[in-house]
Amino acid sequence: MTPEIIARLFPNPLPSVAEIEAKYPPRRLPEGAKATRIAPSPTGLFHIGNLYAALVAERAAHQSGGIFYIRVEDTDQKRAVDGALKVVCDALAHYGMRADEGVDADGKDYGPYAPYTQSQRRDIYQAYVKSLVEKGLAYPCFCSAEDLDMMRKVQEKNAQRPGYYGKYAKCRGLTDAEILAKLDAGAQPIIRFKSSGDPDRRMVVKDLFKGELNLPENDIDQVILKSDGLPSYHFAHVVDDHLMGTTHVTRADEWLSSVTTHIQMFVAMGWKPPKYGHIAPLQKLDNGNRRKLSKRHDPEANIMYFAERGYPRDAVVEYLLNLINAQFEDWRKANPDTPAFDFPLNMGKMSNVAGALFDFVKLNSISREIVARLTAGQVYDETLAWARQYAPDFARRMADNRRYLIDILDIERHIGAKSRKDLAKWEDVPPEVSYFFDDLFTMTHNEKMTMLAPMDEADVMAVARDFAAAYDPADDKDAWFDKVRRIAGAHGFAADMKAYKASPAAFKGSVADAAKILRVLVTGSDKSPDLHAVMRVLGREAVVRRLNG
């Protein structure tokens, strides 16, 4: 291609390739260390699958003594959403993933390979595209959107692969005179990479997670520079991963079909490609069928969902590590008190290569175990921080009743393996503690009696009145239960179920049923933490009032 055409295609001054390479020298990493990145597009919500991939990248880098950085891939300017970058940065920070370089929540760079935002690297990409055009490895394309649409329709009609290749790459063979004529006519071209691939040939790709793959070569002449002067994802990430010294790329499965294109571009540029690992999307069951978690249909696809529900950050990280490596569960059993980030993640032993199933039952189980290990003060602090953002009325109640709430949350929190595990997330706390507050304890007498059916109301109230009269908060648990047993027996409640077998018609209930009477009248539920402890925290006045009410 003539110097005149190249000057017309790239009219503005650009740095030379040598100048760029000198400005961004190769990284000096310790032996075996990895340089990884998360490269979000600021186009809206942060998907839980992106956090999943980021966790793999962050652990791989930091456990090897390497570098984990944030790069913003915003070359699709039409889809950019204000505030999207802050969501990503805040989520990474919230879940303990420290970036060593990149862009912060305010869009400011930190690190030696700045700028880390692609739209600010326009001249860099154009300089490399220009070098490809000069070498005959790229060319201008003047096809309109209508031309491309017509081409696709022809390919569909002929049952052919879609794409700009072979005889359909109409601008690939333009002469210099034809290119100049189009430029003279005011046409604004894009630049396409001139593929050397042949789909009848195969390329062996060693995927970090999927192992060795045998894929057809790419023969499509991909767009590498758009008409707005910004690069396509295909080319931008190749340039950036080279200049920023990325050694390992973990990304969504949707890019697996493009990996041969990207490796082809690295080779054309004379660069060593990074190692790629493609992660299958998180899935869920829908009417018995597995499908990809959808941003549009599944609230849990949005990482903010977990903050809004109040899942402890450690629970989310631990659950994701469970999905990433099957060995995590055995490691956790052997290391029950070790931080989850200390788990030695092995990129070569990824679980669920075909796609992990997101399981709320498992997440909640992990979360309950984590909450159960916290002190009452820690649960209070975490819940208050959550409530200040998502439940302000309850936050004010917590702030006004700090000691009382800690005493409530301390019930059954110091009994080893049997510590209470009714709380999986901070939003569970308000309904679990509401009955400790008279203004929130709104269960009617009829509702209580319905819960205690078929017991006779007179028997219920007799047991309640006698216990109210006898109740002493100073009683230890044994003395407390002796009173329950004595009062139950005085009102015809049997010590065990043998009485029922002897005479079902005369059976009023057991001591357990008598205890249920007290539990329902005091808490409004037939299930609660240890009732002896609940009554002591409530205090004698409240207990007596509820039993006599």
Task: Write the SSE topology.
Blueprint: H1 3-9, H2 17-23, E1 35-38, H3 48-63, E2 67-70, H4 84-94, E3 102-103, E4 109-110, H5 122-134, E5 138-141, H6 145-157, H7 176-184, E6 190-193, E7 202-207, E8 211-216, E9 223-225, H8 233-243, E10 248-252, H9 259-269, E11 275-279, E12 283-286, E13 289-292, H10 304-309, H11 313-324, H12 327-334, H13 360-372, H14 376-390, H15 392-400, H16 402-409, H17 429-433, H18 445-452, H19 457-470, H20 477-490, H21 498-502, H22 511-523, H23 531-538, H24 540-548
Parallel strand pairs: 1-2, 10-11
Antiparallel strand pairs: 3-4, 5-6, 6-9, 7-8, 12-13
Helix pairs in contact: 8-9, 11-13, 14-15, 14-16, 18-22, 19-20, 19-22, 19-24
Structure at a glance:
This protein is mainly alpha-helical and 549 residues long. Helix content is 45%, strand content 10%.
Describe the structure.
By secondary structure, this protein is mainly alpha-helical. It has 4 domains: 3-14 and 122-279, HUPs (Rossmann fold), CATH 3.40.50.620; 288-369, Glutamyl-tRNA Synthetase, domain 2; 376-434, no CATH class; 445-548, Arc Repressor Mutant, subunit A (Orthogonal Bundle), CATH 1.10.10. The protein has 24 helices and 13 strands. A 3-stranded antiparallel sheet has the order 5-6-9. A two-stranded parallel ribbon has the order 1-2. The protein has a two-stranded antiparallel sheet with strand order 3-4.
Structural descriptors:
549 residues, mainly alpha, Rossmann fold, Glutamyl-tRNA Synthetase, domain 2, 4 domains, three-stranded antiparallel beta sheet, 13 strands, 45% helix, elongated
